[in-house]
Amino acid sequence: MTFNRLYFNRGILIQNFRQHGWIGILYLFALLFAVPLHIATEYREVPQEIASLFLVNGEAQLLFAITFPVVAGLFIFRYLQSGGPADLFHSLPLRREHLLTVNLFSGFILLLVPIWLTVGITGWVWAAQAEPAFIFGGAEIWMWGLSMTIYTLFMFMLTVAIGMCIGQTVLQGLTVYAILLLPVVVWGVFELHLQHYLLGFPSEAIGRYAEKISLVTRVASISSVPPYTIELTIYGILTVIFILLSYVLYARRKVESATQAVTFRIVKPVFRFGFMFTLVLIGGAYFEVISPEGSSGWGIMGYVLGGIVGYIGAEMIIRKTWLIWDTRLLPQFAVYGIVAGLILYVPVADWNGYASRVPEPEKVQSVKLGGDYYVYVDGVYLKSDDSHLYSDNPEYIGAVLALHEKIVTSDLPLPANSSSMDRLRDETVMINYQLDNGKTMQRKYQIPEEEFRQELKAIKETDEYKRVAYSTDLLDGDVRSIGLSSNVSGNRKAYISNPGQIREFKALLKQDVLNQTYDDQLTPWSPKFNVEVYALSDASSINQQVPMTYYEIKPSYKQTIEWLKQHGQYEQLEVSPDEISSAQFVKEEINSPGKFKWVYAEENFMNGSPDGSKQVATNNKKIIGDLLERQRSAFYTDQDVVYHIKLNVDRGESIYMMLKQEDLTKEMKEILAEQ
What we know:
- The protein is α+β, with helices and mostly antiparallel strands.
- A 4-stranded antiparallel β-sheet has the order 9-8-10-11. A 4-stranded antiparallel β-sheet has the order 14-12-16-17. It has a 3-stranded antiparallel β-sheet with strand order 3-6-7.
- A hairpin with a 4-residue loop joins strand 6 and strand 7 (about 440-450).
């Protein structure tokens, strides 16, 4: 009886339900709208099999889970942030742990009942539907209920725990979402700092985890990557920690701290430095983005200005006034500034050895060039196992180490000091080492191709590199069919479905890919044909996409082209000069030093060139035949002369391509000069 009277005081429970019950009612309506109503009213000719209910309108579901619990936490514990209600509640004949327990229990009831009512109604809809749009089982419904329970309790307890340290309701709500976004902002912006000032830092190291460390950013990915066990376990543990922390903080919170920005003295330096350091990173990143080409020092200036603004802003929030000047202000700012400077400097300092570290050959078990690979399974993108892409060939490892050694000893400019022209001409190299201690070492560089041509050639002419870069391993698997299309005209298509022909084509295509020279891989010419290889799928899920891989048939793939000619596919794909009635040329002169543009075959440019360039037309079959055999791939440039070309097909189709001035044949130059 005493337990019920003190820990679950009936009067406070009834008052909370009367005053804040609207939160639970709105939460219930929102969840019913997002889940069972959506499932019941959706129509699909072919039902979609789903592995999680979050794959159905998941963004709305998680959005509700990160807003309603915060609202509940703000309103139920509103008495803590106002002087009069705080005095009133703490004058009741209840100990603080009793008062906290009954209010937490009120919040749990208001938030969890809507979730489990939605679970029950969703189960009824699932059982009652004769022709469902989505196919799922009872386990998916229970898992959704468990996931939403954990997400909701986490947000509610985070709001309560922060409310113990903050004395203003508005600031409490802002702080909740600020803390949720803080890891993403700090990690993301700090990653930019490392990219600018640390040679070899792989940008993927932090960026790929950004969406997983905040429920706010998780909203964007919940429909493609549903909750996983580790994620829910972490949020469950944090919820328990916040519950215990709330009891500890509430026992020590002073009643008169209501309306204060920060209620505990020990929290003030944490708040002050966290606010300041966040603005330090944002200021540095912003100034790096707006810095003029080739300039240096803008990032440092941004860090300093961000620190000043952040420190002053934090002081004004804590003191609730702009009159913050006193004798302690500058010494305190100097201490915080030194700490922030050390955090920024130590990771990028030369003496820590990160930039110059190259593993010893005997410590490298295998190596891979390139990033991660992902596959689409049951509506979810999953990181694929790339262990088979690593090579333990000693010669290949030696070639990669030789390139790495030259990079770290070549005094390459940091990304922050290199011009956009240099970056566009550079080649990206992503190195992954598997070391004998079980760890993986990653480095990423932008290197000038001309300076490292010999080392790159030694790597790129190996089968180990081509096998990864061109996914030749996928050609060894079972293939259902192969689709071919002309790169000149998308209307020209051919298909290979005969098992024997598929085996022959795959073998020749793989051999041509592996026979490429370094110059073949650097060719500026567009491929002749595009290839889509559809693998056999053993997936039981009707929602799993058929695995498909894209390849190109370059002019250097002589064996593959000859096979297509022998089997009649080449004629189906080829566009003959006799089918072209005329060719039109329009000249574009690009002269914008430092302002690079992406140049490609533009239909709009041909139909109305912005600079009013004169069009030159010809029906010379020799010129048209040469055009069909060569077309330039898209490229970046700031100074060039480009000819946009339109081929008019007899049957009404238009083909667009482009050439640089140096690509023109003698006959092309003559007709252009004449007109």
